[in-house]
Amino acid sequence: MESINMVLCGLGGQGILFMTKVLARTALTRGLDVLGAETHGMAQRGGSVISHLRLGDVNSSLVNAGACQHLLALEKHEACRNLPFLAPQSQLYVNSDVNSFPDERVRSYLEEKQIQCRSVDAGKIALSLEAPMAVNLALIGFMSASPASPFATEEIRATIDAVSPDRFKPTNFKVFDAGAAAGG
User: Fold this and answer.
1) CATH no. for 4-183
2) In the structure, what pLDDT confidence band is assigned to residue 43 with cuts at 50, 70 and 90?
């Protein structure tokens, strides 16, 4: 099996590590080998958080520049900072109003590299469901509905069921499902 390289990025407190846990566990459930690495930076103060996730036949935990097939960004500036990780013809999922991302400079870069960019206001989805801390689940739900997603919506939903504490499950499912509906 060919390897799958993912980079997840955002700011401290946005739930990058939970997203990584959900996607890694989904891969393990499917029987894939998983390696990952996280960079926390100033996470407790809203600084950059980057998580590398490598699935399949891989030998190291870090994704090389130009080798990432799926980049999930919980913040549009972090998406821009991490563009060099993306491989040509890869997928970029960004938590941003579709009218504000990508701007013209980023758009030309994405077009040149044939990178498909999909934006969704995951923050607005989570807030509308009174779950502002669940933006991460809206974004992975959105990604799961993409034809290019490495995982089906049902696979990720089953993992959310397995890893979420019982008291958070109803909210987590509502936000994830709304994100998936926005992507479908």
Assistant:
1) 3.40.920.10
2) low
